[in-house]
Design goal:
- The chain has 260 residues and is α/β, with parallel strands linked by helices.
- The protein has 2 domains: 7-200, 2-enoyl-CoA Hydratase, Chain A, domain 1 (Alpha-Beta Complex), CATH 3.90.226; 204-251, Lyase 2-enoyl-coa Hydratase, Chain  A, domain 2 (Orthogonal Bundle), CATH 1.10.12.
- It has helices spanning 31-46, 68-71, 76-95, 111-118, 145-153, 155-164, 170-176, 188-200, 204-217, 222-237, 240-251; strands at 7-12, 15-20, 52-57, 61-63, 100-104, 107-109, 121-125, 129-131, 168-169, 181-183.
- The protein has a 6-stranded mixed beta sheet with strand order 1-2-3-5-7-10, sandwiched between helices.
- The radius of gyration is 19 Å and the shape is globular.
- It starts with 6 loop residues before the first strand and ends in a 9-residue tail after the last helix.
């Protein structure tokens, strides 16, 4: 699994726990963190023992943004290279076969908000804060924020949040659809684990195909999207899990899925 300096990683009962661990820098993203996230999610993507992932941060922050002290020293060419690296990491997280749950425990600003948006589902602490404040620094979101935010909350709201650099409390993030659920801080990880275990109990191939159909279909028009859905449906229908799931339903018993 590798040795990591800026993240913590463990697997327990089918859940991979990825924790960004730079509390002295509010878990700010730099090149090293991005490299280690790429490494751990590349491993997770191929690891049969991992069925779902919970991504969170240490201390008061999920991720408080990118490492501005480092970015200040970069040339435009170097800045572009950093952004492309970050975009690749976000796309990796978004597109691995396993569902990824963001447990947003605190500040999720700039790159932190973008990281949360790359996850499949966002659960937030009541103390979480969200925002894309990049225009305050003379730049724009670059880790996919202009694209994922508009897809999650709509074009007008995305423009409002990015152009105003307004910071949102968890309740408002929930209202506009940026997060799915909000919990008291002390309940956040337990609720994330509960959700992960619920997803793990379902047919793995069906979960994979559902994620694929949603991710790919959202960029297509409706006709092409439902055509893609039909192919993803066929992929799940061809699995042994489909036979088991339907038979278990008829037998009125829990299904025993095998991921085949």
């Amino acid at each position: 699994m590798g040795d990591y300096k800026t993240i913590l990683f463990e697997v327990k009962d089918g859940i991979g726990y990825v924790t960004i661990n730079r509390p002295e820098a509010m878990n700010a993203l730099n090149g090293e963190v991005l490299d280690e996230l790429a490494g751990v999610f590349g491993y997770i993507d191929k690891a049969d023992e991992v069925r779902a992932v919970i991504l969170t941060g240490t201390g008061r922050a999920f991720v408080a943004g990118a490492d501005i002290a480092h970015m200040r020293t970069l040339t435009a060419f170097e800045g572009r290279a950093l952004i492309i690296k970050g975009q690749k990491v976000m796309s990796l997280i978004e597109n691995i076969d396993k569902p990824v749950i963001a447990a947003v425990n605190g500040f999720a600003l700039g790159g932190g908000c973008e990281l949360a948006m790359a996850c499949d589902i966002r659960l937030a602490s009541e103390k979480a804060l969200f925002g894309q404040p990049e225009v305050n620094l003379g730049i724009i979101p670059g880790f996919g924020g202009t694209q994922r935010l508009s897809r999650l909350v709509g074009k007008g709201m995305a423009k409002y949040l990015i152009m105003s650099a307004e910071t949102l409390k968890a309740a408002e993030a929930l209202r506009i659809g940026l997060v799915e659920k909000v919990f008291p801080p002390e309940e956040l990880m337990a609720e994330a684990e509960k959700l992960a275990k619920t997803i793990i109990s379902k047919a793995p191939i069906a979960i994979k195909m559902a994620k694929l159909a949603i991710n790919k279909g959202i960029g297509l028009d409706l006709e092409l999207g439902v055509a893609f859905e039909a192919e993803a449906f066929a992929g799940s229908f061809a699995s042994e899990d489909r036979i088991e799931g339907m038979q278990a339903f008829l037998d009125k018993r829990p299904a025993n899925f095998t991921n085949k």
